[in-house]
Amino acid sequence: MTTQPDDRDLPVRLLFVCTANIARSPYAERRAAQRLAGLGGAPVAVSSAGIPGRPGRSMDEQMASQLRSRGADPEGHVSRSLTTELLSAADLVVTFEFGQRMRVIDTWPDQEGKVFGLRQLGDALARLPFDADRQALVERVRAVSAPDSMGWDVRDPHGRGSKAARACSDDIDAALRQILPALIWG
Predict the structure, then answer these.
(1) 11-183 placed in CATH 3.40.50.2300
(2) Whole-angstrom distance, CA of residue 16 vs CA of residue 95
(3) Among 32, 44, 134, 154, which is disulfide-ready with 96 (CB 3.0 to 4.6 Å)?
(4) Distance between the two ends of the chain, CA-based, in angstroms?
(5) Residue range 40-56, pLDDT digits in tens
(6) 6: alpha, beta or left, given left = phi > 0 and alpha = psi -120 to 50?
(7) Rounded to two decimals, what is the model's pTM?
(8) What's the CA gap between 149 and 131, in Å, rounded?
(9) At residue 67, does pLDDT exceed 80?
(10) What is the distance between the alpha carbons of residues 186 and 39, in angstroms, rounded to a whole number?
(11) pLDDT by residue (tens digit) across 90-112?
(12) In the sheet that 44-50 helps form, which strands lie side by side, from edge to edge?
């Protein structure tokens, strides 16, 4: 007898997208993975990409330093560009700037329903009750999400020094504190 996996056993696939995939999105990917591991390996898979991306580059050193100071490991990150395959495989796509979100939607209009700004998604998930209804996750988030805007952008720290990297990291961590618990089912 073959059994089908319960939807709660399948990971929610979360894709972080920034401009070059060297600062914000890899920081969010690695920090989310670290937090999820601390929650017992919750069923959330994280990845990152850039639009347009700068393939083959390591992580921005200031953001890598922020990761290290918070107990996560930046080593081994190699930047990549967003592709149709990466986008199609994701359940939720998270951007850091309104312009990035619009670029993803303009390029892949059929994927619009699952693309959210970081703070937009955090705000929407904070409005939802915690339950195991994974099937309707995107629809439920879309129904309660406020419009994304440039006012919710997480400023790019690349080339702006350690203070900007720290502020960016703090912003991302605050949003992850809202997003990750809401994605953990069961």
Answers:
(1) yes
(2) 6
(3) 154
(4) 24
(5) 767 889 999 999 988 99
(6) beta
(7) 0.89
(8) 28
(9) yes
(10) 12
(11) 999 999 999 999 999 999 999 99
(12) 44-50, 12-18, 92-95, 115-117
